[in-house]
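The authors assume throughout that readers already know how a fold can be written as discrete tokens. For illustration, here is how one protein appears when written out as sequence plus structure tokens.
>
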Amino acid sequence: VVVIGYIFIVISSKFKVYTRYCIDQEIAFMVIDHVRKKNPSFEYFLKQIEYTPRVNNYSLIGFLNKPIQRILKYSFLISELLRFTKQTSADYKVLLEAKTSMDAITRIVNESKRKSENVRKLVEIQNSMSGTDHLIICKPSRIFLRES
């Protein structure tokens, strides 16, 4: 167990690359959606291949979500290890440090995903407005608050 905790401590900083992945993931979702709507052959291809044993019953979006889902599960898995490790054990201290590291990564990834979804929503709003070519809604300082 010490080895597992130590591994997470050492590699946790490498997981920060997933913040970029979150941003690019939203862009990929938008591109896939756009191409699906514009290209019937692509839509047909995805429908033929998605949810088949050949791809373990995953959709393309499911594949793109998998890395983020895994990152977010690590903190939970370390919590489970902590639950079954005695607090007096040397393993416990290392696992606690690993959990702290992975919790920090989880917060960073979630915040990155939230910001990316915010930008996507602002772009959607901007694209839906006609006759406002000079109006720029999507700016780094703007935040989408709610939809009514």
